[in-house]
Amino acid sequence: MGKVYPAIDEKLSTFIAGQHVFFVATAPLGSNGHVNLSPKGLDSFRILNDRTVAYLDFVGSGIETIAHLRENGRIVIMFCAFDGPAKIVRLHGRGRVIEPADLDFSALRSRFPNYAGVRSIIRIDCERISDSCGDGVPLFRFEGHRTRIQEWAETKGPEGLADYQRRKNVMSCDGLPGVTL
């Protein structure tokens, strides 16, 4: 039976910290726009307080999450157990894009590992925190994090990443503004 929580308590925090992957979903306001759902990994998620979370957003081929957040702020994060007891946790809220030029970027960035290719930090004020059973989620064994995104970012270097973002991350697939360079 699912439950709605007033805050991220210690039990939810422990569950979240034990997951190797999480999923991020956003959508534009327009009914013709594309809903975006992205898996995330690495050690890239932090609970800042009992109603605020953040994650590292890496340079990639799409910019939908940032574009949607700039347009309307709506976001949901989902964690689901792929091993151990079945459980799904969803964090619905309002997200804010924090880019490297923003004043609070450095302080927030220091809470994460020093990964290459970080394009922004997504900070979410949670409005609804809930769980559900997750009995339909299959069991999988975690073998490790992929290293390709870090290798790619390190090979590109800062100038190469900036050029890539100018070509791929300025506009979403629906024509909404993405990164500010």
Descriptors:
8-stranded antiparallel sheet, single chain, globular, 181 residues, alpha+beta, 4 helices, Pnp Oxidase, Chain A
Total number of helical segments?
4
Q: How much strand?
A: 25-35%
Count of strand segments? 8
CATH superfamily membership, which one? Electron Transport, Fmn-binding Protein, Chain A
Distance between the termini: 46 Å
Uncertain parts:
none
Shape: globular
What is the string of SSEs from the N terminus onward? EHEEEEHEEHEH
Largest sheet: 8 strands, antiparallel
What does this structure look like?
- There is one protein chain.
- The chain is of the alpha+beta class.
- It has a single domain, classed as Pnp Oxidase, Chain A, CATH 2.30.110.10.
- The chain is 23% helix and 32% strand.
- It has 4 helices and 8 strands.
- Strands 1, 2, 3, 4, 5, 6, 7 and 8 form an 8-stranded antiparallel beta sheet that branches.
- Strand 6 and strand 7 form a beta hairpin.
- The radius of gyration is 16 Å and the shape is globular.
- 28% of the residues are buried.
- The mean pLDDT is 96.
Task: Summarize this entry quickly.
Helices cover 23% and strands 32% of the residues. It has 181 residues and is α+β, with helices and mostly antiparallel strands.
